Amino acid sequence: MGNGISKSVGAHELEAVSLSELIHQHVRVAIEMAVHEELRAALGTSRYERSEDRRGYRNGIRERTLTGPTGPVALALPRATLFRAANATEWTSTIVPRYQRRMPEVNEAILATYLAGGNTRRIRGALQPLLKAAPLSKSAVSRVVATLKDGLEAWRTRSLADLDVIFVYLDGFALRVRTAGKVVSVPVLGVVGVRPDGHKHLLALELCGGESFEAWKGCLDDLAERGLRAPVLAIIDGNAGLRRAVGLVWPRAAVQRCCVHKLRNLERKAPKHALAEIRDDFHRIVYAANADTARTAYAAFERTWSKRCPGVVTSLREGGDELLTFFRFPKAQWKTLRTTNTIERLHEEFRRRVKTQGSLPTEDAALTLLFSLVASGQIKLRKIDGWQKIGAVLSQHASVAA
What we know:
Radius of gyration: 30 Å
Helix content: 40-55%
Distance between the termini: 92 Å
Number of helices: 14
Shape: elongated
Structural class: alpha/beta
Strand content: 15-25%
């Protein structure tokens, strides 16, 4: 009985190996057939066919090894010479380009594993069972990952002239990177726009020395120089340099101060025993049913806390009417417009992806990874709440501008 089970398992394993080899052979045959067909079209004739329309001639076979999802595939690919004007040139396949050693699917798997949080060692380990006799080298993984940087550079310099944005979120956050043997927090300026259809669009990610006026002004100037038109509303945190930069670059844009940031500022200036009460009174302002009720709650906050916690009231007044700008817009959009949570969620999603790595090896690697996660859709920027009302916002803005 034991021998019967052993034989059964052995047969099952043999069947699995045979199936794998069969698939591997079909991959080889399919690639070779496709390249031969590509060459036939380039020459204008089939093999051994005589024709006055012949555009070249075959001259042998080249052995190539191409690594794919089923492992290394040994290929016998045709060579040919093409007649072009008075010159003869060597034909090259577009299906299997010269110097290509891996199928695109392998590179896509490398990038997907990297974007999922894997480092070079983990990527090589994850793909080893598939690549078999053609394991990835550390430099090969690095070269594939480096292609993401090309996408980042193209995105950084693209024209924004054809992009309409209605709302813009601006906020800064820190990425942990390793530099000079030490892990440090590097500030990043983030800008996300909202298009007329309600979809969010990543506009800028810029490393800087700090969230200064000069840094923000440079970031916004770059967007303007690439053709981005002023938004209807800018949602910002409490950074004074950012507020000043927005006023200079987009002087006609309305400004909404982030209510979450302002509450944090109030709490830092409040004694612990008063935190809950201050929080409740602040919520009565920003969660009011309408603008008039919010202003009444604002005045009540000042009366209640001006003597008990003057620093808290001073901080509230610093935000002023810009804490209530969102009340000018459709109620369905209030939740989305009163905070910069869009940028904060972007940062949180990024941290979740890289938590196993602790820190990124360089500043460029950090920024490239963050951009690529958004560009690939692994970090999704969903539509804003109340996007159906954006048309009404545009109509109102146009009438005011006129």
